[in-house]
């Protein structure tokens, strides 16, 4: 194989691989950019200009649908791959990757059927391309794109927008700077009215990308010829015009072999009095070689940019492969090790959230610094220590025997009743921290890139973590309630020891026992009791405001940092190999993505090596 064939064949393989791997067209990633950086040939012409016949002549096979009106209703991306002499010809469709067609009549039928699947049995068009590869020793390495024929009017069954729709579709291909335009014009029509030339002049005004092809030379009126066009006098292009003689309708009806048709085409030009002097630069075989030679020069000029894009693609793929991780081992010991490593990766991120390396842990401090104090301030102590309630509680505590000095039982009941209110904020603090920890577990699982491959393991870790957090919450609730109950079970003695002195200081300046008795049942007496209880409750509130966070952090946050997955580790160690495999059952989409990345990586590395091996040759 020559250097030229190697280069073009390489480009063809890259384009084919990009197509198979879903990197064709329109994207903004490096893979789509690579496709667009590779040259291809778009076949453009009006309806019935002979486009299909030109393609079949280049391929040497009769494989395209025929008929009147609009026949090509979807772009056909045709990739020709030259094979060894004597090898069998066959075709493959992208949408039928495991099926080889050796009967090209079936290729024609599949093109028609696949078109109908997208557009229905109507005259509608679709921009979604059909991808077809043909492997043959009788072709040159080329990528050709057959586009719907340009038309001037809509026919019955077509929307009024069909003219503009077709032109827009064709432009989307030929406007790309790396697209070579094969402009097909029939010789029996005035070149000035050629749809293909008109469009190519607009998108390629310099003519550097345009190859003019003149068909139907044998159908011109007697006494006329197309020399003015073929020799560049009527319309000059940067590249020479090529004349083509396609099979006649009679030949098509008789199923004349394309090899025979090529021979008859050569004979026509060789014996033609008008075109004999151009015979060696006419015909479909010459056109294929001309295009192949041009593509080789284009590829050589673009090798640096193509190599750069390939290197960029390789870097992106290697990065993604690192991100996706290695395939899962089948050995139970290796699987257990993988699971433990994944758990440690999750645990590390979870701790980073708690310790401040990642956001989220500060919300726990917010519970203690904002939520708990606010809840304590909202407790209904004003209602509990109202004058009416204090009088009622103290009186009920005294029973039939009024208190002598300080109403100790009344004080105790008022304090115990008030302390019960602290249960709510204490439990709410536990629940709030529990919610934050659960949210951090969820975020940490999502941020553990290695876990994204294993949805089953993600769910198991989430369930085990939440189960552990529930245990920590229950322990924490018991602890904070104990703190509240401890305050109720033993009141601070110094508080009570101050009370008689306060009564004597404020209640009986004259030393009259009768006035003391009367004072104990006045409004001022009950207000003083309520004030004393309020002072005690405030003291307890300040204490709990400090001790509840300590208990919550000790029972929940500390435990979560130290032993969140301990129970899970114990369970994992008891699992059988089959159960471990189930935990490492990857997301099928990720497995497919890894396989695609591996294929792409292999392709691009191979392409880079091949380019390095042939780019220096001249």
Automatic annotation (TrEMBL):
- Tell me the CDD domains matching this sequence: DLP_1 (cd08771)
Q: What is its main location?
A: cytoplasm
Cellular component per GO, a single term: membrane
GO biological process entries: cell division
Location in or out of the cell: Cytoplasm, Cytoskeleton, Phragmoplast
Q: Which SUPFAM superfamilies match?
A: P-loop containing nucleoside triphosphate hydrolases
Q: Which residues form the GED domain?
A: 526-618
What are the UniProt keywords, alphabetically?
A: Cell cycle, Cell division, Cytoplasm, Cytoskeleton, GTP-binding, Hydrolase, Microtubule, Motor protein, Nucleotide-binding
Looking at the record, the residues that make up the Dynamin-type G domain are: 35-304
A Pfam cross-reference name: Dynamin_M
One GO molecular function term? Answer: microtubule binding
InterPro entries (UniProt xref): Dynamin, Dynamin_GTPase, Dynamin_GTPase_CS, Dynamin_N, Dynamin_stalk, G_DYNAMIN_dom, GED, GED_dom
At the top level, the lineage of the source is Eukaryota
Which family is it part of?
A: Belongs to the TRAFAC class dynamin-like GTPase superfamily. Dynamin/Fzo/YdjA family.
Q: Which PANTHER family match?
A: DYNAMIN, PHRAGMOPLASTIN DRP1E
Assembly behavior: Forms homodimer and may homooligomerize and heterooligomerize to form the phragmoplastin complex. Binds to PHIP1.
Q: What is this protein called?
A: Dynamin-related protein 1E
What taxonomic classification does the UniProt entry list for its organism? Eukaryota, Viridiplantae, Streptophyta, Embryophyta, Tracheophyta
């Amino acid at each position: 194989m020559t250097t030229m064939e190697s280069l073009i064949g390489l480009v063809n393989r890259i384009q084919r691989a990009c197509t198979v791997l879903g990197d064709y067209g329109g994207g903004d990633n490096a893979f789509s950019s690579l496709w667009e950086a590779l040259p291809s040939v778009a076949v453009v012409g009006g309806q019935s200009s002979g486009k299909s016949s030109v393609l079949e002549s280049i391929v040497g096979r009769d494989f395209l649908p025929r008929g009147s009106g609009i026949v090509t209703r979807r772009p056909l991306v045709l990739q020709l791959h030259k094979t060894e002499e004597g090898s069998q010809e066959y075709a493959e469709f992208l949408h039928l990757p495991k099926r080889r067609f050796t009967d090209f009549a079936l290729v024609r039928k599949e093109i028609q059927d696949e078109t109908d699947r997208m557009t229905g049995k109507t005259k509608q068009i679709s921009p979604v391309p059909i991808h077809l590869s043909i492997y043959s020793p009788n072709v040159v390495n080329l990528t050709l794109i057959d586009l719907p024929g340009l038309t001037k009017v809509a026919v019955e069954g077509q929307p009024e927008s069909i003219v503009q729709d077709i032109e827009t579709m064709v432009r989307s291909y030929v406007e790309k700077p790396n697209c070579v335009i094969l402009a097909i014009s029939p010789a029996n029509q005035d070149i000035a009215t050629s749809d293909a030339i008109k469009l190519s002049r607009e998108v390629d005004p310099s003519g550097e990308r345009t190859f003019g092809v003149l068909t139907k030379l044998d159908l011109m009126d007697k006494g006329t010829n197309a020399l003015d066009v073929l020799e560049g006098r009527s319309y000059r292009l940067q590249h020479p015009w090529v004349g083509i003689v396609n099979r006649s309708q009679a030949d098509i009806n008789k199923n004349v072999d394309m090899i025979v048709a090529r021979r008859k085409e050569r004979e026509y030009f060789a014996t033609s009095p008008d075109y004999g002097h151009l015979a060696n630069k006419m015909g479909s075989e010459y056109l294929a070689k001309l295009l192949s030679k041009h593509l080789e020069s284009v590829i050589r000029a673009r090798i640096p940019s193509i190599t750069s894009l390939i290197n960029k693609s390789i870097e992106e793929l290697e990065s993604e492969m690192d991100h996706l991780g290695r395939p899962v081992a089948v050995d139970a010991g290796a699987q257990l090790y993988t699971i433990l490593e994944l758990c440690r990766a999750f645990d590390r991120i979870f701790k980073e959230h708690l310790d401040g390396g990642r956001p989220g842990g500060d919300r726990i401090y917010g519970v203690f610094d904002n939520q708990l104090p606010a809840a304590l301030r909202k407790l209904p102590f004003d209602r509990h220590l109202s004058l009416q309630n204090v009088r009622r509680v103290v009186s009920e505590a005294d029973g039939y025997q009024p208190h002598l000095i300080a109403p100790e039982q009344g004080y105790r009941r008022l304090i115990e009743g008030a302390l019960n209110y602290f249960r709510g904020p204490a439990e709410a603090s536990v629940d709030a921290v529990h919610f934050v920890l659960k949210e951090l577990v969820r975020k940490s699982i999502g941020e553990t890139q290695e876990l994204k491959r294993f949805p089953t393991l993600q769910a198991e870790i989430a369930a085990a973590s939440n189960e552990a957090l529930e245990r920590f919450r229950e322990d924490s609730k018991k602890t904070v309630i104990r703190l509240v109950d401890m305050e109720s079970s033993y009141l601070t003695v110094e508080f009570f020891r101050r009370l008689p002195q306060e009564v004597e200081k404020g209640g009986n300046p004259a030393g009259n026992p009768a006035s003391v008795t009367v004072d104990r049942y006045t409004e001022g007496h009950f207000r003083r009791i309520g004030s004393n209880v309020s002072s005690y409750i405030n003291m307890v509130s300040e204490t709990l405001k400090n001790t509840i966070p300590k208990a919550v952090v000790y029972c929940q946050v500390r435990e979560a940092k130290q032993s969140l997955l301990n129970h899970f580790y114990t369970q994992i160690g008891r699992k059988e190999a089959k159960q471990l495999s189930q935990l490492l059952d990857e997301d099928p989409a990720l497995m497919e993505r890894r396989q695609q990345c591996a294929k792409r990586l292999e392709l691009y590395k191979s392409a880079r090596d091949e380019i390095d091996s042939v780019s220096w040759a001249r």
